[in-house]
Amino acid sequence: MTRNTNDKALNLKALTKSNVWDVQENDIFRMWDGAEKDAEVHENVRHFVDIIRSAFMIEEIKDDEPAAVKKKYEKLGYKVAQVKLDDTKKVTWALKKRPIMRVTDLTYENIRHISAAKLIEVLDRNFGGGWESLSQSIKDIIESGFDISTTTLPQDRLHKKGGMYEKKVSDGFEVLEVAKGTWVEAIFAKVKPMAEKPRMQFSSSEEEEDEIPEDTYNKPDEDDVEIEDPNDDDITEDNYSTMMDLGSDDPDEEAASLSEYGDE
Description:
Elements: H1 25-34, H2 39-43, H3 45-53, E1 56-61, H4 67-75, E2 79-84, E3 90-97, H5 116-126, H6 136-143, E4 146-154, H7 155-158, H8 164-170, E5 174-180, E6 183-191, H9 205-210, H10 240-243, H11 251-263
Antiparallel strand pairs: 1-3, 2-3, 4-6, 5-6
C-alpha cells in the first residue's frame, strides 16, 4: 500500500522517478495507450522507459516466442500487454513492480511511498545487529521519510506501563523489537509529515509608503561613542567604592573567586 495517492490520474509525460511508485502495472499500460498519438512521447521513448524501469521490471516477449512464455511471466506476477513504441513498432511487455524487500531496495525516490508498517517489515527481514548495523546512507534515506527513535532496555522493563514503548505506540509509531540477549532494542518508526515550503509575506504598498525608515546614515555607531573619564570633582568618599573594585577582605572568598576563573 502506498502512502501517496493521486486524485487525478497521471499521464505518461507527468511521470517522475518519484511518483511512478504510486502507480501499478495496469496504469502504465493505460498511460502508454493514452500517449499513442503523442509525437513528444515517440521522440523520447527511452526517457519514459527509463522512468518506468526505475520502479518496474520490464521484460520484452518476442513475437515468435511460444504462449507458454507469457503464461510463465503471468505466474510470476507480471502483467503482460502490448505497447506501441512508435508508429510502426509494437512490442509485448511483461511488467512487474519492483519489490521492496531489503533495506538496499530503499531509495530517496520510493521511501515516501511505503507505510511505516512496510518499513518495519523490511527492517525485520534484514536485521541482525539493530539500527546501528545499518549503513549511514541507508539511515539517511529512511530518516528522510520517517521519524525514527530507538531505546534498548531489559526485556521485563521494555513494556513497563507508562513507559516510552507505550507512549510511542499510542502516538502512532510502528515498532520493531530486536533481541539482544536479555535486553531488547525497540526501533520506532512513524511517517514524517511533508514539509511545507515557507511562503514569503509582503507588506502592502500602502504600508510601505506610510512607514519611512529612520535616517541613521550620520548616526555614530555604538563602538564609536566615546566614554568620558569621571570628573575628579564628582568623586566623594561615599561613592568612591563604587568607582573601583577593591576586592574582599575575606581571603577564602578571594580564593574561591580565583578558582572560578581557573575553571573557565
